Amino acid sequence: MDTLFPRTFLLVFAQLSVGGLFCMSIPPFHDMDRGYYKSSAFVFWGIGVLATLGHFALWLRPDSTVGGFELFLWALYCLAASGYLASLWYEYFIIRARCFTAAWLLGAVALLVGGVSFAGASPLLAASVVYPLSFLTGAMVLGTAASGMLLGHWYLIDRDLSLTPLWNILELYLGCLAVEIAVLLVASLLAVASDSAALWSEWSTVFLGRALISPLGTAVLGLMIWRTLQIPQTMAATGLFYIAVLGAIVGEVLGRYLLFRTGLPL
Fold first, then answer.
1. Which letter does DSSP use for residue 27 in this model?
2. Which pTM was predicted?
3. What whole-number distance in Å separates Cα of residue 123 and Cα of residue 141?
4. Do the beta carbons of residue 171 and residue 226 sit within 8 Å?
5. Chain centre to alpha carbon of residue 233
6. Does an H or E element contain 189, and which?
7. Which of these, 68, 74, 139, 147, lies nearest to 106 by C-alpha position?
8. What's 43's domain CATH number?
C-alpha cells in the first residue's frame, strides 16, 4: 500500500488537467483569439502529462495500487490532448474537435475508473457512486477556477472582449461548488454509515479545514467575483479567481489527505 499516498495526491493534478481542458469549451472558439486556447491548452496538457508520468512511475512499483487499465486511459488522454494542442496551430477543425472531445471524455472515464478502484475497499453500495462523483466534481471546481483565472488575463489583452464567456465560467464554477457541497454532505453521511471513527476522532480538524477552505470559502469568493463583474472590473475578478484557484487546490489536497487516512472521498 506504499503507493496509495502519492496516488491520492496525483489525483489533484489529474483533476485539474481534465476539468480545465473541459472548460475550454465554454468560450466561443471563433470569438476568442487563438492564443488563449494555445496557452491554456498547453497548461492543462502539461499538468496532465505530469500526472500520467506519475501514474506510470507508481505502476512500475511492485506494490502498485494503479491499475493497468487506468494507466492506459491516462496515456490515451495525453495522446488525445496532444493532438488537440497541435491542431490549434492548423485549420483541421474536424481533427481538433474530435481530439478535444476524446481527450476530456477519456480523462473523465479515467477519473471514474480511479474512483471505482478507491471505492472497492468500502463495504457500502453507495460508495461506487459517491467516489467517482467526488473526483469529477473536484475536477470541475479546479477546472472552472483555473479557467476563470486564465480567461480573466485575456481581458488585459483584448479590451473589446465580451464579458459573456467569463460570466459563463463563473456560473459553472458556482454550480460545481453547489454540487461539491452536496457530495461532501453525502460523503459525510457515508462516514457515519461506515462507522468511520477515525474521521471524527483523529481527522475532524482536517475535515473542518477542508470544508471551510473549499467548497465554502471558495463559494464566498465566487459570490465576490459575481459582484465584481457587475461593476464591471475584470482585473479584480481575475485576482479573486487567483485566490479561488489556490483555495480549491488546498481544499482538494486536504480532501486527498483524508482519502488516504480514512478511505473516504472527502
1. S
2. 0.96
3. 28
4. no
5. 26
6. helix 164-193
7. 74
8. 1.20.1630
| Domain extent for 129 | 4-262
DSSP label at residue 75 = H
Q: What are the cell numbers at 52?
A: 500520467
CA 262 to chain centre: 21
The three-state secondary structure class of 146 is: helix
- Count of Cβ atoms closer than 10 Å to residue 2 Cβ: 12
C-alpha angle 84-86-87 in degrees, rounded to nearest 5: 65
Mean pLDDT for the chain overall: 92
- Are the C-beta atoms of 210 and 258 separated by less than 8 Å? yes
* Cell numbers 467517482: residue: 132
Alpha-carbon gap, residue 252 to 204, rounded angstroms: 16
Cα(45)–Cα(79) distance, integer angstroms: 10
Which tens digits make up the pLDDT trace of 72-131?
A: 999 999 999 999 999 999 988 999 999 999 999 999 999 999 998 888 766 666 778 888
Any idea what DSSP says for residue 70?
H
Upstream peptide bond of 232 is cis (omega within 30 degrees of 0): yes
Residue indicated by cell numbers 483569439: 33
Grid coordinates belonging to 107: 480523462
What's the domain count of the chain?
Answer: 1
